[in-house]
Design a protein that fits this description.
298 residues, four-stranded mixed β-sheet, 12 strands, binds zinc ion, EC 3.5.1.103, GlcNAc_PI_deacetylase-related, 1D-myo-inositol 2-acetamido-2-deoxy-alpha-D-glucopyranoside deacetylase, hydrolase
């Protein structure tokens, strides 16, 4: 099909950096296996804060050039993961970062949060019908942690999956395609607890001044809800870590911990976890999949 590899996997994220934090190992693993790994990022992350003091002038309240800078960071991160197909929803700058929930930026007409879901989803339908992925990965309805752009990315991704499959919908955007499996990004509670225990034990050797809390980790659920886990070897963890470092305005990494602009350390998770919300599980009842394509016909 269009010369694309047999296995095709699509990730939908809100801002540059979310993909490396949540899915860096998974993306690198499938890219190395020759699957087609595609990323659609919905905004440029223009409203983010900036960690390196030398780049502080990029922020929205000063030069407002963080968006274009983050396009470069994302490209560098994707090079680390071996992912060649990364795009912005509707093209770079079509939708702007909405800022944190309740911020006045939420209400700007160009903010992703203000976008009509169906209108935004049409851009993604075109990508889905072009790439015909068997697997889609995005956030849960809360966006993992309530950021408006993450919630909106969830809505747009789920709606686009539905519209892409509808035979009567916008044939100018390509032939209908049904995505076989849809997953939400997850972290099991036990893994978060273990990660923060490790963090507490290592705090004196770390460069970060404070510790984040388990509540800062997006997508945490009880272990029973996890349906898939993707294991990492040393090379995959190195690729994920390098991709996170490439987002230098947003992330500082120290060993197996990292911090966002709040400077609070949190564990960097090597293994990545998912909850299957649509499609048939490829593992026996009560067991976790170790491959997101499990049970999928190529
Ligand atoms: Zn984000």
């Amino acid at each position: 099909m269009n010369g694309l590899p047999a296995r095709r996997l699509l990730f939908v994220h809100a801002h540059p950096d979310d993909e490396s934090i949540n899915n860096g190992v998974t993306m690198a693993k499938y890219a190395a296996q020759g699957a087609h790994v595609a990323l659609v990022t919905c905004t440029l992350g223009e409203e983010g804060e900036v960690i390196p003091p030398a780049l502080a002038h990029l922020t929205a309240d000063r030069d407002d050039t963080l968006g274009p800078h983050r396009i470069g960071e994302l490209a560098a991160a994707m090079a680390e993961l071996g992912v060649h197909d990364h795009r912005f929803l509707g093209g770079p700058g079509r939708f702007r970062d909405s800022g944190m929930m309740g911020a006045p930026q939420n209400r700007r007409p160009e903010a992703f949060w203000s976008a009509d879901v169906d209108e935004a989803a049409a851009y993604l339908v075109e990508v889905i019908r072009e790439l015909r992925p068997q697997v889609l990965v995005t956030y849960d309805p809360d966006g993992g942690y309530g950021h408006p752009d993450h919630i909106q990315a969830h809505r747009v991704a789920m709606r686009a999956a539905e519209l892409a499959a509808e035979t009567a919908y916008r044939r100018d955007l390509g032939d209908p395609h049904t995505i076989g499996k849809i997953y939400w990004n997850r972290v099991p509670l036990s893994v978060v607890e273990e990660g923060f225990a490790r963090l507490g034990a290592a705090r004196t050797e770390m460069s970060f001044p404070g510790l984040a809390s388990p509540r800062d980790v997006p997508g945490v659920v009880d272990d029973e809800r996890i349906t898939a886990e993707i294991d990492a070897d040393e090379a995959l963890v190195a690729a994920k870590t390098a991709a996170m470092r490439a987002h230098a305005t947003q992330i500082a990494v120290d060993g197996s911990f990292f911090a966002l602009s709040n400077d609070l350390a949190q564990p960097l998770f090597a293994r990545e976890y998912y909850e299957l919300v649509e499609g048939r599980p490829g593992a026996a009842a009560g067991e976790r999949e170790h491959d997101l394509f499990a049970g999928v016909e190529a």
